[in-house]
Design brief:
The structure holds two protein chains of two kinds.
Chain A (H helix, E strand, L loop, with lengths): L8 H9 L5 H14 L5 E4 L13 E4 L26 H9 L3 E5 L33 H8 L6 E5 L5 H7 L2 E4 L19 E6 L2 H11 L28 E4 L9 H16 L3 E4 L8 H16 L17 H12 L2 H14 L4 H25 L2 E5 L15 H5 L7 H5 L3 E9 L2 E8 L5 H15 L8
Parallel strand pairs in A: 2-3, 2-4, 7-8, 7-9
Antiparallel strand pairs in A: 1-3, 4-6, 5-6, 5-10, 9-11, 10-11
Chain B lengths: L2 H8 E12 L38 H13 L3 E2 L5 E5 L9 E5 L5 E6 L2 E10 L3 E5 L10 E5 L6 E7 L6 H18 L11 E11 L9 E6 L2 H20 L7 E6 L4 E7 L9 E2 L10 H9 L5 H11 L4 H9 L1 H12 L10 H16 L11 H12 L5 H14 L3 H8 L6 H14 L1 H8 L6 H12 L5 H12 L2
Parallel strand pairs in B: 11-12
Antiparallel strand pairs in B: 1-9, 1-10, 2-5, 3-4, 3-14, 5-6, 6-9, 7-8, 10-11, 12-13
The chains are: A alpha/beta, B alpha+beta.
Chain lengths: 464, 485
Amino acid sequence: MTDLLAMTAVQQAERIRAGEVSPREAFDFWRGRAEADDLGSYLWVAEEAPADLGELPPVAVKDLFCVEGVPSAAGSRILEGYRPPYTATSVRNLRSAGAAVLGKTNQDEFAMGSSNENSGFGPVQNPWDRERVPGGSSGGSAAAVAAGNAPWAIGTDTGGSIRQPASLCGVVGLKPTYGAVSRYGMIAFASSLDQCGPLTRDVTDAALLFRHLVGRDPCDSTSLAFPEEVALPTAERLDGLRFGVWGLGEEGLDPGVADVVRATLGRLEELGGGVEEIELPSARHGIAAYYVIAPAEASANLARYDGVRYGPRSGDGDLTAMYEQTRHDGFGDEVKRRIMIGTYALSSGYYEAYYGTAQKVRTRIADDFRAAFERVDFVVTPTSPTVAFELGERTADPLAMYLSDYFTVPMPLAGIPAVSIPCGLSEGLPVGFQIAGPAFSESRILDAAYALERAIGFEGVPRT
Amino acid sequence: MSITERQAREYEPVIGVETHVQLKTRTKMFCGCALSFGDEPNTHTCPICLGHPGTLPVANAEAVHFALMIAMAFECDIAPRSIFHRKNYFYPDLPKGYQISQYDIPLARNGRLGDVRIHRVHLEEDAAKLVHAGASGRIHGAETSVVDFNRGGTPLVEIVTEPDLRSPAEAADFGRLLQATLRRMGVSDVNMEEGSLRVDANVSIRPAGEATLGTKTELKNMNSFRFLERGIAAEIARQEQLLSDGGEVEQETLHFDPQSGGLSALRSKEEAHDYRYFPEPDLVPIAPTEAMLDRARAALPELPAARAERLERDLELPADTAKLLAFRSELGDFYEAALSGDGAEGEGTDPRTLANWTTNELTARIGDADPAGTRLEPTAFARLVEMVAAKEVSASAGKEVLDVLVSEGGDPASVVASRGLGRAGGDELDAIVDRAIADNEAAVEKIREGKDQAIGAIVGAVMRETKGRADGGEVQRMIRERLGA
């Protein structure tokens, strides 16, 4: 049985389909691993296998996905104990494809964070170094997959929340095209940016999980039909493909990370790909625009948490006092900070200067990418400017924390897909390599990532 | 000259109205819950309209269809892509903490209804209903308040006029035209008491003849056209008093109390909300396709204003009668069915006579009810009116027949026959007239002296005897003939 631990999810699915392993055995194995997780990856683990187990290994699900009857708090105290009366479309899609919910993974509160330290239920440790963060906000999903405590997982990415933790934990993370996966049942952070995607051991697993996530959902009017069935990647060479490199000259990029990324560019060329530097002139303003737009949307999205209809309630008597106490007790500092930033940015007299300007920057970033994709097939960057940092290292400095998303924020602002794959180690910690493409180019991105992945031959963290 | 007269000459009221219309769709604006009124509280709710985490709105296609019909009825410019905004305010009747509404790019603009220009038409969702326990019935001073989410999420169309109205009566008339028009279209119940039509008024006054607008106030909570008229009149009087006392009108929102007729401040300009509008990221723009526009156009019936004009022009009905038949479209429908289906040989029923019977006799019997809901058949109604016109039945007997037809149905001729209501004549009437002359010597004397009006006493006696079945004109003629007068 323990050989399941060494297998990718796709390999396990083959064994299950061949009858060599029963769905029940696979589920129980992973349930045992999830139960035994001591990194803080999980906030809830399924007590028992559901009756209708399918032929895919179970999936770990970020806490913010609503699952009927299962605690779904988005990592926030204000939703502690909330058990939704319905299930997110993405989770339903995975279930009907045969993947049961293994557990709910830890995350930064309402997906606001880059280290998982903003969780209302405690931090997550990076399995490569327990003194370090796993990244965020999908930190629990990334850590669980890296440590072999989940066969695969889903998370959400708003400004890098799938790709950055994938990078810091040495796993694959895909942020899909905006609209490719239904957002229905995802507890919202920033609605125009949030997107669900897979965190997996390898690119093939990511492709398979993504195949089952996509689709137009009548419950999400911003969702779109994926233009084709997502194929499992097969590319061995990258001949004729052009890769535009962005951001290697940025100050703040760790030299060790830059070295590993440069070596990866060499591999692209060895595989037949063309590498050139490109400019994305507005992308450097991505962080500034992102930290106006995302908090603005969040300030409205989080207004519903008032202690009246669900979730814990503090204080009694006076209605206003109850609201204030509930929100005071329920929201963490980072969430409060963003509600205030967002409320301010939308206020009369400031709207144009902040929200209006940020939207213009957003349009320009999308234009930059459009222009770039006329010259190159993909834009490649480091995923994170640094490797995993120490727990507590950046908690006192929100701006330093926000810069963790420097390379990942422009893509969701443009609505385009990007994958992060592990490309080597710096100081013994994983470095992520990001490949972005035009909207709905996921199959091509994954194909390129697959060829590169095979050439790199990255070994994950030893699983015990 | 009294003070009121002088002021009435000095100031001109300028009024615009803002109406909220609950659409009669099958389901709510952004979820699949059924619409309801008066049902057990909180029985028409779901995770979406309760604002549960992770839920998303999806725009109701039928609501968009109705809104497009409304925009077309007002001859508006329809936006090729209108967008929804979030209107942020924190209140217990708003489970998401914001209302999904439209802001700078509404569904439609620049229309007209009657003589009033329509500024804009947009779609939004209704708030839940707060019920305040306590003497005031309002949130101020309430001991407890409870929320009924059944109403929350009901589709609303907001219709805003330009400030084209100049008197309380004009505002009420506009409201009635709007109500009749929307009712005719079948897009709303437009019931003011139940809140499916809500009318707010923006009121300002300015020195007569001036072009610049004065500071306006907004009046809320007028749940009938009578109250609307009274509320606006009260506010005009208040503003006139303020200005003539040397004061200034302050921009504020006022609550009209129909009991006392008084106005109280809800909030001042300083307390006005900053709604922090921003585009709703969960919804795509409304981009009406040609097919959607065609469907809305095809669904538009003849509207009351046009119908009144047609009835007046083509059938030569008096303006008031035409308007009544057009504004109460069920009455108009019945009238036109009777007119076209009269089935009489010859010229058929006279449209004006039939209209009179419809607006007087029929409404007297059915009140505000739909005549189609009674036993009366339109063709039977038309035949009855013809029989009266042809003097086969007297007018008063005809009314008795109508009573029977409304409550029991049937054919007028058989009702006349079975109840013996046919016109009195021949030997029967000769005998009755002779007897009446013999019994009223005093009257006969007066007539012979030239006091012609005394004939009424004899006619009355004949009518009593025939129970109204005789024709008054004919009876008079017979009396005069016999008396040689």
